[in-house]
Amino acid sequence: MAQHEVRARVDTKVIGRKDLEITVKRNDEKLGTLLISKGNIEWMPKGKSINKKRVSWQRFAELIETEGKSVKARK
Fold first, then answer.
1. Rounded Cα–Cα distance for residues 22 and 35 (Å)
2. Residue of 25, 37, 48, 73 with fewest CB within 10 Å of its CB?
């Protein structure tokens, strides 16, 4: 079974001018980097640092609602 590793680099308490940068790996191989900002969310695949995929928070919410798998949340 694949092992995922997710690391976050947090430079500030609140997202301001810098993005929250999260590196995602699977079996020690980098899948990409997730960039989170106030205005949108971006995915930067490994090795393609100039070709980011960007969606607004509204579009992200729509994608998760339609494409995401429902799981029971812990209280």
1. 6
2. 73
The pTM is what?
0.72
Question: 31-71 pLDDT, tens per residue?
Answer: 999 998 888 999 999 886 678 899 999 999 999 999 999 99
Query: Minimal CA–CA distance to 19: which of 38, 47, 45?
Result: 38
Which residues, at least 6 apart from 33, have a Cβ–Cβ distance to it below 8 Å? Answer: 21, 22, 23, 24, 43, 44
Check residue 11 and give its pLDDT.
62
